[in-house]
Design goal:
Blueprint (H helix, E strand, L loop, with lengths): L1 H11 L3 E7 L6 E6 L5 E6 L1
Antiparallel strand pairs: 1-2, 2-3
Length: about 45
């Protein structure tokens, strides 16, 4: 999970976080972010 959170933070640097990386009912970690170029990402960690 640490690697997924690190990837999320790297993408968030200079970008926009739509949903912070946190535990959900379906995953140990999930977050949504648009990077500094506007590309949307969803990071999911089981």
């Amino acid at each position: 999970m640490a690697k997924a959170e690190q990837m999320f933070q790297t993408l968030a640097d200079g970008g926009t976080i739509q949903m912070p990386f946190e535990a959900t009912f379906w995953a140990k970690g999930f977050g949504m972010v648009a990077d500094k170029f506007g590309t949307p990402w969803m990071i999911n960690c089981d």
